[in-house]
From TrEMBL:
Gene3D superfamilies: Hydroxylamine Oxidoreductase, Chain A, domain 1, Hydroxylamine Oxidoreductase, Chain A, domain 2. Residues 400-420 are annotated as: Disordered. This is Uncharacterized protein. It comes from the Archaea. The lineage of its organism: Archaea, Methanobacteriati, Methanobacteriota, Archaeoglobi, Archaeoglobales. The keyword Signal applies. SUPFAM superfamilies: Multiheme cytochromes.
């Protein structure tokens, strides 16, 4: 019996090798680079092309019969990693993208999966249902283990995270790479002395990639009463809570996409996991102090941001700003840059750029990024919004004077008034000239 099984195994292996050779012979002419990548990876030593693409594709005329892999394809050999991925935030990236109202305004090549020119280029790491009809780009796993080498070593490098975790609203790579942690990595290489992305966010190869605060740095509930008031204001501007503080349909999307922490227990679980990771190099007390300092930066940023939201909300309440017919909430932060007024564009920048950089910079140990690229412009935007709001209210009320947020200049004293008169300045100037002439004459003698 064993001989029969061994013979069948050898026969199957020979068929696989023969099939793989057929694919390689043809694709060397069509896609030679892909063939070279495939042969340079470990998978080519154990599998043929049909393991991922099936065996229905026989020649150049039936190329559409080749199956495109999905995470379920990878699951067959990597069930542990798949289950971790399916429980984490990357799995829900596609859901989160499609939940954004502003997506309907994005050009097709940027919105659709086939184009990869915008949001979908990174959010395709999420799980995509087959019924959505996308042929290419639904593999997800190849976002980090790029095809066709599918290298584990490549995915362990922080540079693998760079294409998606950079830029406008999530410059985590820039923050890390210019922090002390990142500088040590750049000087010494991957020696293990300094943490990289995978050290903190994929400890022991865990593919769930979860954090305590999530992408939006929001948690429910909040014990700090003042902070909770600010949090409610932000959640209402996101359309997650209605004006009475009740959950809306968007709350379910936030819940499904795991972009916020909706219980103390879930938040604390992720925080303790990070404490354990940081404590491999630092004392536990130091790790807690640093992470709690990041928490406080979120609180301070929320205070400024909530004040700006309330300022804009008042303009809607007064009828100065009119809610568009296709908006359900106003202001609506999830409209992003598709808002109708400059004052709301400034609010969008506070939300997606400055607030993000304030807390992300803090947690990535980059004080300069947190302060000058986050906190400082966040405060500047608040001043701009309040100033513009006063102008709009003055125009609405028909007032001729505009209320400003700047401090008025102090009144001049009597001595200053006297000194500033043209006659006084003229006398002083004349005396100075005469004195200079007398002094020059004496020197000449």
């Amino acid at each position: 019996m064993r001989r029969v099984l061994l013979a069948l195994l050898i026969f199957a292996l020979l068929i696989t090798i023969a099939s793989a050779n057929e694919c390689i012979d043809c694709h060397r002419q069509v896609t030679p680079g892909i063939v070279d990548q495939w042969l340079s990876g470990n998978m080519s030593k154990y599998f043929g092309c049909e393991a991922c693409h099936g065996s229905d594709h026989k020649n150049s005329d039936d190329w559409q019969n080749a199956k495109m892999p999905t995470p379920d394809t990878c699951k067959a050999c990597h069930p542990k990693q798949y289950n971790q991925y399916a429980s984490g935030k990357h799995y829900y990236a596609w859901i989160a993208m499609n939940a954004m109202p502003a997506l309907q305004h994005v050009p097709n090549p940027q919105r659709d999966l086939e184009g990869f020119k915008g949001c979908s280029g990174c959010h395709k790491i999420g799980h995509i249902e087959e019924k959505e009809g996308y042929r290419y780009g639904a593999a997800a796993c190849d976002s980090c283990h790029t095809r066709h080498k599918f290298s584990k070593e490549e995915a362990r490098k922080p540079e693998a995270c760079l294409p998606c975790h950079m830029g406008f609203d999530h410059p985590q790579y820039e923050m890390w790479s210019t922090s002390k942690h990142g500088v040590i990595y750049r000087i010494e290489g991957d020696t293990g002395r300094a943490p990289k992305c995978q050290t903190c966010h994929m400890a022991n190869g865990n593919h769930s990639v979860m954090t305590a605060w999530g992408f939006l740095a929001l948690r429910v509930p909040e014990d700090d009463e003042e902070w909770w008031k600010d949090r409610v204001t932000i959640l209402q501007a996101l359309g997650v809570l209605d004006e009475d503080g009740n959950p809306t349909e968007r709350f379910e999307i936030v819940k499904a996409g795991k972009v916020a922490r909706l219980s103390k227990e879930k938040w604390q679980t992720e925080r303790e996991r990070m404490i354990t990771i940081c404590s491999q190099c630092h004392s536990e007390n130091f790790a807690r102090e640093q992470l709690e300092a990041g928490d406080k930066m979120i609180r301070e940023a929320d205070r400024v941001f909530a004040e700006a939201i309330r300022t804009v909300k008042e303009l809607y309440d007064l009828g100065i700003l009119e809610k568009p017919d296709d908006w359900k909430y106003a202001p609506d932060l999830l409209q992003f840059y598709e808002v109708k007024t400059p004052i709301e564009e400034e609010l969008y920048l506070m939300f997606m750029e400055y607030r993000m950089r304030t807390f992300q910079g803090a947690f990535h140990m980059n004080p300069d990024y947190s302060f000058w690229y986050g906190w400082a412009p966040l405060k500047e935007s608040l001043i701009k919004i309040k100033y513009e709001a006063e102008k709009l209210k003055a125009e609405k009320l028909g007032e001729s004077e505009v209320v400003t947020t700047t401090t008025p200049a102090p009144e001049k004293t009597e001595a200053q008034e006297t000194k500033s008169t043209p006659g006084f300045e003229g006398i002083v100037t004349a005396l100075a000239i005469v004195s200079a002439m007398i002094f020059a004459g004496r020197r000449a003698k």
